[in-house]
Specification:
2 domains; 23 helices; 6 strands
């Protein structure tokens, strides 16, 4: 059986990244938990992907115009990143600050937004909100380029308050009024995008933010009880100091990294499942000057995080990327990446193209009869492929340990996929099934087949759908 340190590390890497192989978990455990947390929170100390090399293999990554090309690139990053928490936080913000390809000037626009999340998504929350407000993809998606001082468009102002920074309400009370929405929209008038530069003959030019002073409302505004000649930066400064902003970020972090919460529209009337945990993160938010890394540090080092194992349904992205990291496929460029990326879509998460600005509903809503079959078929196919390096490594590791008892073999296979545990009834069924496959003789060809069959049975269980 895996040691408690390895089990804890498996939990951390599922949540703060996309999982890890058993050998990697042993290496992490040897470093110590807090040291690994510090390493995860310092992603820039690790190398990034070498895009100049990757673009030689995937030539369409140079411009990234099509949605599917961008999805393949994002999938490759999740599988191969040496900065797992940075990539996980990019996915986190992508599910909150939603922009969809269905309303976008071109696909690469969203990829540039994700790059911004990679750069700023673990730092200052006000800086991140400011960058979002001048991001061409967001300005276009939520029509702020159509908001004028004499005819405001409230889309961006409303979503900034409702979905991006404060939430509708908390503790049974509303967090903002319709007058706040109007004042917010007025403050962001003139924040637009520059006219497009013709694509030919040099290729596509990136969209650029532009401030049109002649179209900005310089009048007095009242927002969240404060009055002044506010612009967008002023609005953000007021937002981030509200108790609702601390609660909003804390609940989102808890929902994404710790345990499934109700969906966002219910938050005004539904208290957090662990108010003490939320309060700790809120305190870190304000004491650190709105620093996201410090909130993450408090969370990952807390007992309530360490004890919240298998309390979250994996997202499709986590399911695919985590399984590919286990089997060690697509660790270098090769054909066939596109179908792997499409599996995330088929499981219900069309990356870079969320259904609405609200993003995807998470938790149990990831699972229905169709997506569950897709998950099981994909994971079982991968874990049953003995040509994949990760599967070979598992077979060799277990074979070297000379395990000949079906119960012990199942336990070791559970360790290898991330220290999972099964209910007694499910476990007994799998042990019985392994026993029916014949005597276990380490080193034989049939032994490898028995191991892969056990792995396939494990990833087909309900328990494997949880992180």
């Amino acid at each position: 059986m895996a040691s408690p340190d390895v089990e804890l590390m498996a939990h951390l890497m599922r949540r703060a990244g996309f999982g890890a192989t058993y050998e990697e978990l042993e290496e992490y455990a040897a470093k110590g938990y807090e040291a690994v947390v510090d390493e995860l929170l310092s992603p820039m100390e690790q190398p990034d992907l070498e895009m100049d090399i990757l673009e030689r293999y995937f030539i369409d990554w140079k411009e990234m115009n099509a949605l599917e090309v961008n999805q393949a690139y994002l999938t490759y990053r999740m599988i191969n990143t040496k900065r797992p928490l940075q990539e996980k936080m990019t996915l986190f913000w992508h599910g909150i600050f939603c922009v969809g390809n269905s309303k976008c000037e071109h696909g690469r626009q969203i990829q540039q937004q994700l790059d911004m999340f990679r750069e700023l998504g673990m730092g200052s929350f006000p800086k991140l909100l400011l960058a979002l407000s001048i991001d061409p993809a967001m300005v276009f998606y939520l029509d702020n380029c159509m908001s004028h001082k004499d005819a405001i468009n409230e889309n961006f102002g409303r979503e900034l308050l409702e979905l991006f920074a404060m939430g509708v309400g908390m503790d049974g009370q509303a967090n903002y009024s319709e007058d706040d929405v109007k004042a917010c929209a007025q403050a962001f008038t003139g924040w637009t995008i520059a006219n497009a530069i013709p694509r030919y003959p040099y290729g596509r030019f990136e969209s650029q933010f532009a401030f049109n002073a002649a179209d900005h409302d310089y009048g007095e505004k009242t927002f969240q009880g404060e009055t002044g000649n506010f612009n967008g930066e002023d609005i953000i400064d007021i937002i981030v100091k509200q108790p609702s902003a601390g609660r909003f970020i804390a609940r989102h972090l808890y929902n994404f990294f710790v345990a499934d919460e109700p969906q966002i529209p219910a938050w005004q009337g539904t208290p957090p499942r662990d108010m003490d945990a939320i309060k700790e993160m809120e305190d870190a938010y304000f004491e650190s000057g709105y620093n996201l890394t410090e909130m993450l540090r408090v969370m990952f080092n807390s007992d309530w995080f360490k004890n919240a194992r298998f309390e979250k349904v994996k997202s499709p992205a986590e399911t695919v990327a985590g399984t590919m990291r286990l089997v060690k496929d697509f660790t270098s460029p090769k054909p066939g990446l596109h179908p792997i990326a499409m599996e995330i879509r088929y499981m219900g998460q069309d990356l870079m193209n969320p259904p609405t600005v609200e993003g995807w509903h998470t938790g149990q809503e990831w699972i229905d009869s169709g997506t569950l079959v897709e998950r099981i078929n994909f994971t079982a196919d991968q874990m049953g492929n003995t040509d994949l390096p990760g599967v070979k490594a598992i077979i060799e590791r277990i074979s070297s340990e000379g395990i000949s008892d079906p119960s012990a073999l199942l336990d070791r296979c559970l360790d290898m996929v991330g220290a999972y545990a099964l209910p007694d009834e499910t476990r007994a069924y799998l042990v019985e099934h392994i026993g029916k496959s014949g005597d276990l003789k380490p080193g034989t060809e049939s032994y490898g087949g028995q191991i892969t069959q056990a792995l396939q049975l494990i990833v087909a269980t309900q328990e494997y759908q949880f992180a």
